[in-house]
């Protein structure tokens, strides 16, 4: 199926063609897989299988417009366009979890940014996973050095949405009837909402923060100037504008700028694709008509304007939706230890409520 470079392929035009068939597998085996998980975070190595699970890959079988996950007998290498579990997916499991969360990071960050939040949710009996979106985190390493894949580091929102759907299907198979939730921050929040709009039965609920495309003038001006003065073949460094306006904490800024898994430079085409992708979120939010949605915005956010979040919240068609404005929060709410106990409890109680509703 054809795919546009900016991620505007037929996935967006006719999303319901992409619903995945239910995965096979008995519930008893799923329960034993979940119970066998250790309490320590785990990164899936490309040379080893995920712990205590018969599914080691996310290869895809295409039959018409449907997708189905294959078993561990498939090749250990992850062929395109399937998600490469490799080091792109990380888990923080607990025995017999009350719920499961898959987290999607914001622009310039990686799955590692959720480490502290995942551990806080672990303490409340919730298993957490986080994945690198295409072009970020582990995908940068796949393009480095001799023999590296130069295309691996390209930002690809179209493929990312399929990755998220494949991951959710695998988690549903692995954890059986345990309620499954999707969480995303900023860019990851837009991915979470767009994925939910296309695959409404994939999760019991979606939790997002600052998913809008309305930015303060500093970012708008930086993007415009960068595109105007850029030489052919050059890159756009957004470090000062993204990091500088996401947090006022100098230690966090330094940590972010020196993080080897962080990516803050993009090509002109990628920047334009990013803006186009983010601008679609409010339109696709109208298709979310039954999935519960919890949305956050920090009142001290100096990067994203609150009206962008409010616009998307209003477009969500589901009646079961909540918007929380956090007075002291900046752009990051779940990542890089920017949450507090109050935020964790809000998420935990909302998940408990909607886990109970899902079981009725």
Q: Would you write up a description of this structure?
A:
Helix 6 crosses helix 7. It is built from 14 helices and 12 strands. Strand 11 (293-298), helix 13 and strand 12 (321-326) form a beta-alpha-beta unit. The chain is globular. The protein is α/β, with parallel strands linked by helices and 360 residues long. Helices cover 38% and strands 15% of the residues. The N and C termini lie far apart (38 Å). Mean pLDDT is 76; it is low at 1-10 and 12-85. It has helices spanning 10-13, 27-35, 85-88, 115-122, 138-142, 157-175, 187-198, 217-229, 239-246, 250-257, 268-279, 281-285, 306-315, 341-359; strands at 42-43, 60-63, 66-69, 89-92, 99-104, 126-131, 180-185, 205-209, 236-237, 265-266, 293-298, 321-326. It has one domain: 3-Layer(aba) Sandwich (Rossmann fold). It has an 8-stranded mixed beta sheet with strand order 1-4-6-5-7-8-11-12, with helices on both faces. A two-stranded antiparallel ribbon has the order 2-3.
Report helical residue fraction: 25-40%
How many distinct folded domains? 1
Biggest sheet: strands, sense, closure?
8 strands, mixed
Main-sheet strand order equals 1-4-6-5-7-8-11-12
Q: End-to-end distance, in Å?
A: 38 Å
Q: In DSSP terms, counting alpha (H) and pi (I) runs of 4 or more, how many helices?
A: 14
The secondary-structure element order is: HHEEEHEEHEHHEHEHEHHEHHEHEH
Overall average residue pLDDT: 76
Shape descriptor: globular
CATH C-level label: Alpha Beta
CATH topology: the name is Rossmann fold
- Radius of gyration (Å): 19 Å
Identify the CATH architecture. 3-Layer(aba) Sandwich
Q: Supply the helix-strand structural class.
A: alpha/beta
Fourth CATH level, the homologous superfamily? Alpha/Beta hydrolase fold, catalytic domain
Task: Tell me the number of strands.
Answer: 12
Q: Hey, roughly how much beta strand do the residues contain? A: 5-15%
**Unreliable parts:** 1-10, 12-85
